[in-house]
Amino acid sequence: MRMKLIVLSVSLFSALSFGQTKRVDYAADLKKDFTAFFENIKEKNIENALSFMYPKYITEVTREQAFRVLALSYNNPAFITDIQDFKIGHTERATLINGEYFSVTHLSFTMKYKVDWSVIHNVELAKQKIGDALTERYGKDHITYFSNGDYYLIKAGMKVCGVSEDMKNWKFVIMENDRRSELAKVLPEKIMKKL
Known about the structure:
- By secondary structure, the chain is an alpha+beta fold.
- Helix content is 46%, strand content 28%.
- Strands 1, 2, 3, 4, 5 and 6 form a 6-stranded antiparallel beta sheet that branches.
- A hairpin with a 6-residue loop joins β5 (151-164) and β6.
- The termini are far apart.
């Protein structure tokens, strides 16, 4: 009887240890895949970046629209973005919902955002609108304008939802409030509450 108790204890400890390792592995895989997604965006390889996006989201918004949004944001010669000090923060525990695992990850970054004013027609109006849009999106406390270099420095955080069927290969959706209606069509309500 005592031997059975010891064997059971060792077996239980082994199972719990394996379970802990499994959690670390999926978080590492999620971070690895998101880093690849982010590097493709940073290097302006938009087509490859799309391959890391959640297919249901791509279907909802269309591949062409997703490509245009990423290209306009990160591969636009009029708007020069230099993402610096990128950090992957807390990754929430993966939740199984309808056969897919969902995990929300918190990110932070600093971005230098410069506009090529030579291609803009009404510079003063554009400066005002861009300043207002950046302030609305990131908040006044997170935006600094440097007139000597004529650029904005943005310090921001965001959330991204990783989705996987096997907890090894992850696809992503950037969780932004201005895309709430699109996101609600492809993400479960439990995940939408985290937005």
